[in-house]
Fold these 2 entries.
Entry 1:
Amino acid sequence: MADQRNFDDRDGWIWFDGKLVPWREAQVHVLSHALHYASSIFEGQRAYNGEIFKLTEHSQRLRKSAELLGFEIPWSVEQLNQACKEVLKANNLVDAYMRPVAWRGSESMGVTAPDAPPHVAIAAWEWGKYFDPGKAERGLRFDIAPYRRPAPYTAPVHSKASGLYMICTLSRQHAEKRGYDDALMFDWRGQVAEATGANAFFIRDGELHTPTPDCFLNGITRQTLMDLARKRGIPVIERAIWPEELETFQQMFITGSAAEVTFVGSAGPWNFEVGDMSRQLAKDYDDLVNGRLANA
Ligand code: PMP
């Protein structure tokens, strides 16, 4: 059973700047730069049967996200991989969600940032499905988000930066207050972009369509799913998708390390069915992460 207490009050070990510390001692100061100016980036990854899926890709993206915010993580991809494995082992976890995070600390205060290396921490815990499995099986109900993904010239959009999640939290909360499960976000041009924490896919007449990730994360799950679809001979079309087109799609699902492959039954006024192709791809993904398919 997963621990239901606050996230700062649990048993276990967290990797913190190079060593494992007791969970409750993994603390930051209130005058941390990250807390005031959002100089923080993170990863979300899952371990299945003791293996962290696409670990190297996640460690590479952690370093890349930091670089896009102007700081360099003082640990190599290899060292980060090793640290993630240590965290899993120290906490006796085999199926887990993992959260590496890097941030500017309290070395200085002000908009300009110190050249000091950032801090890095890695936590892991048991976390079931990201969405209610019953609702997901029927297809989630999506609202249309009040916020749009920003233009690449207004924010470091390819960084998994905490600051970029402000509009995701607001959009998801707005959706939940209105009785929806999540929201579909458009981008600054008005094109279909993604969900608040996952990428979006659509199926029409046996073809898979997905928006070009030019102002949001090109998710690791997204790339995996596209490979799985191509392996099945499904045409994969990455392109600009306008909302007017949504009524022409028969199926929709979202992908993410936390969300995995989750079916969507409606987005705003547009309805979708949970169809065979979505189910097949969700199964392929499940088989792959659980080691029942050769690595995509
Ligand atoms: N977009 C957003 C906003 C996300 O938070 C995530 C989850 N990291 C994704 C897309 C999917 O990324 P990935 O498949 O690499 O987890």
Entry 2:
Amino acid sequence: MQIYNSLTRKKEEFVPRETGKVSMYTCGPTVYHYAHIGNLRSYIMEDILEKYMRFTGLDVKRVMNITDVGHLTSDGDTGDDKMLKGAKREHKTVMEIAKYYTDAFFADCTKLNIKTPDAVVPATSYIDEFIRVISALMEKGYAYEAGGNIYFDTSKLEKYYVFNDFTEEDLAVGVREGVEEDGNKRNKADFVLWFTKSKFDSQELKWESPWGTGYPGWHIECSCISMKNLGEYLDIHCGGIDNAFPHHTNEIAQSEAYLGHEWCNYWFHVHHLNTNSGKMSKSSGEFLTVSLLEEKGYNPLIYRFFCLQSHYRKNLVFSWENLDNAKTTFEKLISKIIPLLSGTDEQLDKNEYDRLMNGFREALDNDLNTSLAITAVYDVLKSSANNFTKRELIGEFDKVLGLDLIETAKKLAETPAVEIPAEILELAEQRNNARKEKNFALADEIRNKISSLGYEIKETRQGTEIIKK
Ligand code: AMP
Ligand code: ZN
């Protein structure tokens, strides 16, 4: 499989260190709010990567952290602690917020058919481990104490900016443009490993350490959780592109300083989901969630399908119109699968099976080209293979695509066709239009009218359904 490696900035053959086995690490969510569908784009594409690796026979062990402490509102070392901000917003404790949004995150993942990683580790459960590694960095001379905090000394590295061409001067421009300068740092790029002098007196979660009571920096969390669970060599590390700097850059700095050798061979970065007004972000407070998609009548798997239609290394623009197009395409695809459900006593057409399977694998072998993998599903539908062969192929492809293609087609085929009167269909259409225009009051009014005429509108995973009461 060829995969683009952000570290070398080229497509490379993916070769795990140990034949047949892959260690994979994923930066998990900061659980101070719901995951927005931009975050979930990253997790969908990482899920496809993991599932495709498993599909090709690799034994993948995947680990994810849950950031429940230490992530400040700037990805550097300034700003509020995001968790504390969330707790204040909701008048709850940090741990209550963490539990609530961790559960919400995995509920969303389930709806999007995103597999839970083999190990999920909340940062707050690893404090001893962070202290152990920071102590080792101090002993090795890679970390120093200043103003009560422990910093990583980036000047001790031969090359710090591994992903891009930033220089200290570039960073200084950033500082002038408003990022608060921390006078304790010896070098502009240095970053905090352990805070004791927090600007936030109300910081709820604090732990004893050799340097005083405090809490860990965000970057050290991922290095320690990865090394502890996956060992001192990591095959592939995943995350959204915004994490490349400073988060992943800092992870590499501290992990390699600690280990004394290179750490991770491949870096997989998913580009952003944007809206017309820019990157979707949690901190802006304006973001779309899976629940909102459901409230508007979209099966979450339509969003997964929408993501798969474009390449993970391109920015993807979200709009309701784009999502509607994906919905229409998805529904048409399902309707083409329904006729394949018959024909049970057929034999597998081995030649066609191999040919079409190769097409699917070629698409994903080429830097995870998911839109071509979907084209491979259409190639199956168009082929001369018998229904059984087609069904087998689509079932196999769906182990990676995760779109419930066969199940959805079966469910739709089993739904008894009830003749819905034209008047009701017309009202349902009017209601859909009202919803599109966000006139929810009118939509509800039409729904009540439909109900008084003996029919019920139901939002299901397959879309809007009309049933006779
Ligand atoms: P966070 O919960 O903020 O720590 O982010 C979780 C994951 O979502 C990280 O891998 C981010 O890089 C990624 N991410 C954040 N915003 C977006 C976006 N608009 N599109 C895609 N991925 C994103
Ligand atoms: Zn991370």
